[in-house]
Amino acid sequence: MKAENQTLATVTLQNYFRLYEKLSGMTGTAETEAAEFASTYKLGVVAIPTNRPMIRLDKSDLIYATEAAKYRQVVEDIAARHAKGQPVLVGTVSVEKSENLSKLLAKRGIKHEVLNAKNHAREAAIVAEAGRFGAVTVATNMAGRGTDIMLGGNAEFIAVTKLHQAGLNPTENPEEFEARWDEVFTAVKAEVSVEAEKVVAAGGLYVLGTERHESRRIDNQLRGRSGRQGDPGESRFYLSLQDDLMRLFNSGAAAAIMSRTGDEDMAIESKLVSRAIQSAQSQVEARNAEIRKNVLKYDDVLNRQREAIYGDRRQILEGASIKDKVTSFIERSVTEVVNQNTGSARNSDDWDLEHLWIDVRQIFPVTISVHDVLAEYGAKITPADVTRELIADAMIQYGIREGSLGETAIRELERRVVLSVIDRRWRDHLYEMDYLKDGIGLRAMAQRDPLIEYQREGFTMFQAMMGMIREESVGFIFNLDVQVVPAGGVTQVQAPGIAPAPIPTEGLSYSAPNEDGETVVLDQSGRQPNAPQERLRPRRGNQQPPAQGGGAKGAFGQSLE
């Protein structure tokens, strides 16, 4: 059995980017997502003309009946291009498929390089050579994006490589390296220029996609590695009816045509089919955008709470006095305890005053008795009378506590205690909100809107959390055994459980996309963690000394309006 994960902090990428006062970006493939940029970030998308005319030839897709037939034709096409010296960049959707294609090319005797997550250390070298005469490079989606593949090769990188091979290193022997640099770079640049002319004559870089992706952006990024800066180039996608996208959105028309030919190596090439595939991609993009939009709606509920918590927490960390807040904590905590024990009963005989006093003593050392209050107000006593007397007594005890510790020490104690309680309760609240979100979809079976239910219950849980923060903070401020230690002219407060404790990094993990674009949970070494952290559940009244650490806040504000 394993302990469950504990979330320390969470924020969606959308709300993270919204934290910036000014937001902008630049990419070559944003136009297909213009609607989502407008709805999520209120940002428009402007297409900037290319520096030089784009002369790349984008050919229609070729569709085959089976994946095996597709890869046979892919290898044949690569072999033909390789024979005439045209550099080829092959795009695959996963590491596994890139390695399978590599085996087919090796069996055919075609020299090539594989660029994926398994050899990312050589990424720069592989990209530098990808535009050379006769080069064949098999790459996954994530590898080498946004990189200029220079026709004929990258002269600067090749020159550095040659100097390294000669035993010269810019860090170990910089003077010798600098002395040889101009000579070697000039010679390499001349060689690259000659080779670039041969590559241009062969047709430029040929980009071959082995499968359409769910997102048109990824396809456009793959195509965009060819034809940069006015260079000639060519691109084409090879598809099969067994590809994931084709299986999901294939209408059956292509399969019907292929069944008549009886030859699985026969391809369908049609602009109409290509447009149908792009329409299928648009449907997938719309579905994924709707999923992200729905996730954002739920996170917006938590984001309002997050802003309140972090705003209060920042006030404490910046060293501001929170005496007024603590005073408010005392008043609210006492009021809530009185209301819980008196309820709606108007007759004081129905009140459990003995239990009320027991609860109040958990917050501060009460000096007045039940009999004193009853003797003063008699049978006409109201909950407001009890609250007023208890708050007055609490303020007297608060003044005594401040006098015994000193103003500097009590202010430091307040900050550290409230910060610790906020951190701990906020982490527990995040877990409870996750738990609520996991099951909220079932409310739809009762004809209720899950989002409205999540908003309502989330707000109730947040209010309850703030009540616990107030009550626990006041209890610790009154009852902790504190030692005031002068150190170098600075007053330090020491108490069990409030010493700063670093968060253990061994158990921390984060979510990130993998090579295939799927979100996975990784630890700090980039591997999937084997030991999730312990689940914590908040329990009212179980007040242990708080531990100082990073977390959140939200105890000061009472509403999120």
TrEMBL record:
What GO molecular function annotations does the UniProt record carry, in alphabetical order? ATP binding
Where is the chain membrane-spanning?
none
User: CDD domains under this entry?
Assistant: SF2_C_secA
Q: Which GO terms describe its biological process?
A: intracellular protein transport; protein import; protein targeting; protein transport by the Sec complex
Q: Which PROSITE patterns match?
A: SECA, SECA_MOTOR_DEAD
Recorded hits in Pfam families, A to Z, give:
P-loop_SecA (PF21090), SecA_DEAD (PF07517), SecA_SW (PF07516)
Q: What is its main location?
A: membrane
The record's GO CC annotations read: cell envelope Sec protein transport complex; cytosol; plasma membrane
Tell where it localizes. Answer: Cell membrane
Keyword Electron transport attributed:
no
Q: Which UniProt keywords apply?
A: ATP-binding, Cell membrane, Cytoplasm, Membrane, Nucleotide-binding, Protein transport, Translocase, Translocation, Transport
The protein in question is named Unannotated protein
Species of origin: freshwater metagenome
Organism taxonomic ancestry: unclassified sequences, metagenomes, ecological metagenomes
